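FIELD: query
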Amino acid sequence: MFDALYLDKPESGFAATRRRLSDEELLAATPDADVTVRIEYSTLNYKDALAITNRSPVVRRWPMVPGIDGAGVVESSSNPAFAAGERVILNGWGVGETHWGCLAQRARLKAGWLVAMPPELDARRAMSIGTAGYTAMLCVMMLERHGVAPAQGEILVTGAAGGVGSVAIALLARLGFRVVASTGRASEADYLRALGAAEVIDRAALSAPGKPLQKERWAGVVDAVGSHTLANACAQTQYRGTVTACGLAQGMDFPATVAPFILRGVRLIGVDSVMCPQEDRREAWTRLARELDPAQIERITTVVGLDDALRLAPELLDGKVRGRVAVDPNR
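FIELD: result
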């Protein structure tokens, strides 16, 4: 038996609870999995919060154990890629949506989804980084691959006090960029500066409808917000600058014109963390292990138990949670 968060949607209505599940139930729910992992830490991400609150149709199969992230030790494996005792990380692949996830003490997963944990990390630190930090690293990699360098100018990070934004600021500042953080929480200014932001601006400067082309400022952008914020960021990006888009906290819409792209050659790069190829995943995790200051990660992380994850989910969706939430399923 093991503890897990359990989401169900019978005819009587939706329910999210902490439940004791059997190994037989786990096996029946995950017949195509070939690796059993003892989960030491998971996370609470935006998508997990949507699933736990049922505010959006994230879950596509019922019942469901949420948790798009997990880190722990292989207990057993029928796949030669991993052996018992190895430490692994899981991000995405539809886990917590169509396949039982990692907000649990045990998970059954496919070997092709797993990344070997870099030796510099342990499970807690890996999940303090989690999908949010891994996504932030993918954004940084895209900026670099498109030639964005510190000498070219400032980098804008939107949704700065969230998980992606917090890690992106820490990474970019460590790499020598001048980072400008956009947030709707003025009270977090000191926190963002401690992470490495050189300047903090109010999200209201970007979140309302704006002109198709605006004064050039940003050499690059990491956007986790979407909607008017993303449109304005593109309109303010320098000639041949690069904008990475990885979130939709303000909205899924993109009320923009083609002007920044055809008149300034601005590049808009979508960053997907769910189905990202393993080669990029391994590079991202290797770099996160080596380049992200452990003290910065500790600063942005809150560790909670499974019951706390249920409580915090609506607060995360309402923008009231700072940084990263790591979940210890044994609490």
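FIELD: remark
The longest helix spans residues 123-145.
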